[in-house]
Structure formats: C-alpha cells, structure tokens
Write a sequence for this structure.
C-alpha cells in the first residue's frame, strides 16, 4: 500500500514537471515571437547601388507566416516575409527582362509578380524542370495560361537550378526552391547581387539552357499533359 502511494506521488510529480516544461516551452516560443514581431517597412536598395545581400531561412521562419498577409513586416532581421517582399520588389523593378530558372515553383505571390511583369511589357522567359512542372501545385500552368514564354527541361537529368535574372543586371539565386515550405520552414538561403562578374555567368548560362530546351519539339511533347486538359484552363494555383 505504501509503495502504491509512493508510486502515485512520484507519478504526479513527474507529470507536473512535464506539464511545467511544456508550458515554459510554449510560453518562451510565444514570448520570443510576440516580442520580436513588431512591424516595420521593408527597405529595398536603389538599383544604382551595389547590392550584395544574403537571406537565410530556418525552422523559426514558420513563426512569421502568421503575418504573411499584413501590410508590413516584423522587426526580425531574418523575417522571411521581409525576404519574400524584397524578392517581389526586385521582380517589380524589372523594366526590360526577367529570366527565371527554377526547379520547383509553387509560391503564388512570386508567380503573380512575374506574370504582372509580363503584362506590363517586360520580356519574361521561364525554364523549369519537366517532372516538377507536372505537379498540380506548380505555377507553370499559370505562366502557360498567361502567355509567358516557358521551356521545360526534358532531359533525363534534373534541371536543379534556382535563379532569376532581372534586366541582365541583377541575379537572385541560392538553395531555395520558390515554395512556401522553403520560405517558411526549411534551412535554405538566397543570395542577391548586381555585381557584374557574378551576374554575367548566370546570363550566359540561362541563354545556353534556353537554346538547349528549345521548342524544336512539339508543345505537346514539351509541356506536361495537365496543360492539355481543359479542366486546367485559367487555373490559378
């Protein structure tokens, strides 16, 4: 009987310790989030300035997803919403051309910015991996339906690049696929630069790939079968 009481008391103590630990864990996470997510305006460098910027995404990035649709961003230096807004601003800055080379692309806010650039007369070219572009969540269909020039890598090897070139003057590249999970949870990075010695090789590589993945084959052979299904017409993902 005595041993049962000891066991019961021990169980209660252990349970209370676990509950306290969980409480402190949740409290600290919430406290860190609420204490640091004070909104502020995103700052975009002038196009004439030298731009050398590095963006890191971590598992803590998921905390900022709650204010993704706000007009402003939080005060964290590594706020992914701030980074996403900066990338969109760089896209909106384009006046002549946008060259996009992306393995997996599902982020709608970025695809909308690219389509809007196309609609205002910017020459837009998109290269994507054929296999990943057949995913239902991909933005390839949006590009296709809006008349954006797009070519798919139909080789056996993956087209694993992730970069975008603005006006042949600025490149945005890194490990990050343009997906919400990458921006809000993955350990990834993006580098932005307008240093000519770094931008020029990307310009040359894109032109080389654009020729490799030319439209010498029929569209039906280059584009995923989903494009040819009427149920996908005017689909915005």
């Amino acid at each position: 009987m005595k041993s049962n009481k000891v066991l019961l008391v021990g169980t209660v103590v252990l349970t209370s310790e676990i509950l306290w630990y969980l409480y402190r864990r949740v409290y600290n996470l919430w406290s860190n989030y609420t204490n640091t997510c004070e909104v502020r305006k995103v700052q975009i460098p002038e196009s004439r300035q030298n731009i050398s910027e590095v963006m890191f995404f971590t598992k803590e990035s998921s905390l900022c997803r709650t204010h993704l649709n706000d007009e402003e961003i939080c005060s964290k230096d590594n706020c992914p919403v701030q980074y996403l807004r900066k990338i969109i601003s760089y896209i909106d800055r384009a006046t002549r051309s946008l060259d996009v080379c992306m393995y997996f692309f599902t982020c709608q806010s970025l695809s909308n910015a690219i389509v809007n650039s196309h609609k205002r007369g910017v020459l837009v070219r998109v290269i994507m991996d054929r296999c990943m572009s057949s995913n239902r969540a991909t933005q390839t269909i949006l590009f296709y339906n809006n008349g954006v020039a797009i070519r798919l890598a139909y080789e056996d090897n993956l087209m694993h690049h992730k970069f975008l070139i603005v006006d042949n003057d600025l490149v945005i590249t890194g490990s990050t696929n343009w997906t919400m999970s990458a921006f809000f949870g993955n350990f990834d990075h993006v580098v932005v630069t307008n240093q000519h010695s770094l931008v020029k090789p990307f310009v040359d590589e894109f032109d080389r790939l654009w020729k490799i993945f030319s439209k010498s084959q029929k569209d039906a052979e280059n584009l995923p079968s989903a494009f040819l299904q009427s149920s996908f017409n005017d689909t915005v993902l």
In short: The longest helix spans residues 2-36.
